[in-house]
Write a structure and sequence with these properties.
The chain is an alpha+beta fold. The protein has helices at residues 18-25, 30-38, 63-71, 74-83; strands spanning 5-12, 42-48, 53-60. It has a single domain, classed as 2-Layer Sandwich (Alpha-Beta Plaits), CATH 3.30.70. This is L-rhamnose mutarotase.
Length: 108
């Protein structure tokens, strides 16, 4: 089995929405968590800086399949619609803004 791909991406949360963004992620819907696991998202973390920079990280065997799997889930459409207003400079849903950064080093 091939090793998992590590994916890191950046988004920016609006300063006036950061507290609510944190609260929402302390209470992610169980069905959303199940959908992420079922579509190949593993070791998924979000980190939020005080200036609103959001760093996302997850591992997956197949990035395209993981993204497509979530895109096909109704719970994801509902979650993304609720999260979209939290972000700056975003056209569409937050998961459509995932542009993986290029990994330049990994300590294994």
């Amino acid at each position: 089995m091939p090793s998992a791909r590590r994916v890191c991406f950046l988004l920016r949360v609006k300063p006036d929405r950061m507290a609510e963004y944190r609260r929402r992620h302390a209470e992610v819907w169980p069905e959303m968590l199940d959908a992420l696991r079922e579509t190949g998202w593993h070791n998924y973390s979000l980190f939020l800086a005080e200036d609103g920079l959001l760093v996302g990280y997850f591992e997956t065997q197949d990035l395209e399949a993981a993204l497509e799997g979530m895109a096909a889930r109704d719970v994801n459409a509902r979650w993304q619609a609720e999260m979209a207003p939290f972000f700056e400079s975003l056209d569409g849903h937050p998961d459509e803004g995932i542009v993986p950064l290029t990994e330049v080093f990994h300590l294994d």
